[in-house]
Design a protein that fits this description.
five-stranded mixed sheet, ATP Synthase, domain 1, single chain, alpha+beta, 10 strands, globular, 2 helices, about 140 residues, 2 domains
Length: about 140
């Protein structure tokens, strides 16, 4: 169990463990909106959406990582984030994100009558927009 009402936080991708420590709070993007997790939060399991995981306090300090897909498990004293990828916002390639945004808009325009094509286009567009916004908050422009 975490000490001093801190959360034990792990953020893991297939390549590496990005975070393994304690934090006072964690803000993260679910597929239905942002969640703020504090010690003693009710248990939940959620799908990650694109956006920034923000940690405050604890031994990890204030940190942000951009994630796009995955899952999060919240227990009263622990948050486990399994992400397909994680990247510091300052390392986001804004030009690449803009290309992805253009690709998503093209997918939308060509989706025709197929609902799953619109869903995929929306996913690409949302992720690209969130990447661009995260890079902007980090002071990075292209």
């Amino acid at each position: 169990m975490a000490e001093n009402n801190s959360l034990r936080v792990r953020l893991v991708t297939p390549e590496k463990i990005f975070i393994d420590g304690t934090a006072d709070s964690v803000s993260l993007p679910s597929s239905s909106g942002y969640l703020e997790v504090l010690y003693a939060h009710a248990p939940l399991l959620a799908e990650l959406g694109p956006g920034e995981v923000t940690l405050h306090g604890g031994d990890v300090g204030d940190r942000q990582l951009f994630v796009a897909q995955g899952f999060v498990e919240v227990l009263p004293d622990r948050v486990t984030i399994l992400a397909e990828s994680a990247i510091p916002p300052r390392d986001i390639d804004v030009a690449e994100a803009r290309q992805e945004l253009d690709r998503g808009q093209k997918m939308w325009n060509e989706a025709g009558d197929v609902a799953r094509h619109y869903d995929e286009a929306n996913r690409v567009i949302r992720e690209a927009e969130e990447r661009i916004a995260a890079a902007g908050r980090a002071g990075k422009t292209a």
